[in-house]
Amino acid sequence: MSFSKTQRILLGLGAISGVATFYHSNNNKNKAHASWTTSYEPATNAKWDENWDRRLPKYPKHTTKNLSEKQENKINEERESVKPKASRHLIMIRHGQYNLSGTSDEHRVLTKIGRVQAAYTGKRLKELGFPYTEMIKSTMTRAQETGHIISESLPNVPVKNCDLLREGAPIPPEPPLGRYRPELYQFFQDGSRIEAGFRKYFYRAQPSQENDTYTLLVCHANVIRYFVCRALQFPAEAWLRLSLNHASITWITITPSGRCILRVLGDSGHMSPDLITTT
Ligand SMILES: *[C@@H]1O[C@H](CO)[C@@H](O)[C@H](O)[C@H]1NC(C)=O
Ligand SMILES: *[C@@H]1O[C@H](CO)[C@@H](O)[C@H](O)[C@H]1NC(C)=O
Ligand SMILES: *[C@@H]1O[C@H](CO)[C@@H](O)[C@H](O)[C@H]1NC(C)=O
Q1: What are 107-138's pLDDT values in tens digits?
Q2: At residue 212, what are phi and psi to the nearest 5 degrees?
Q3: Region annotation Disordered: residue ranges (predicted)?
Q4: What domains lie within the chain, and their CATH numbers?
């Protein structure tokens, strides 16, 4: 914050401008800093929360010094036994384009383009060749249909349904978007349900998990965008700053140490441009 000479005179700020600047910079802790700003402490809400899923291993501590080799080995074994070793991959697919004129969920079926999009994404997932663990579909019609078409490419992947993944209003977006104005009660209802979905699927591997898992979540743009913000520990209110194409692929890896890595966001590069749609 700086004032021109005229503004200083008008505001009578001459002597107190130093105080004003100090006050201002100290109330700026939650601002995003530019990359060249190196002389600051990260804001407390910018620190990574290691225990975001409440599954941070409780490692046994060395309580005594001068342990025998046998005692050392025992402690190391215990540490290994509580430590996750595998990664969990969450591959989220937005449903294909659907009939926006449909008046209820069962009438909001995939359009012809939507079905082609889903088929291309199924083919892409097959080509990627991951050992998919399972596919979980939102119970809304457009997600069910999209998952069904993807299953044609991945016939051996077990399928489940989940109401927590249904579309909704996760949290009032910041900045608000003119035409997106759900009622507050909708955020109140859907927000807790979508957060429950996040807690159900996003967590680091259990120590007993031997191999990486690849979980497909076939669901919706608001749900996926909220999950991305939550997993990366970005402010969840930022979800509406992201945009996802129909039947696009978003991929987050949760490493054994609990770090979340966004590998792919809204990828639809496997489709020809005339098939790329958002609404
Ligand atoms: C640990 O071992 C060192 C060297 O062997 C010895 O000097 C020290 O007194 C020991 N400490 C304890 C707590 O036994
Ligand atoms: C879309 O839904 C409307 C209203 O239910 C219906 O009249 C129309 O035929 C549907 N269009 C398609 C392509 O399914
Ligand atoms: C883990 O992967 C290995 C190698 O592919 C396989 O032999 C083993 O059965 C897998 N374990 C589980 C629990 O799936």
Answers
A1: 999 999 999 999 999 999 999 999 999 999 99
A2: -60, 145
A3: 65-84
A4: 88-275 (3.40.50.1240)
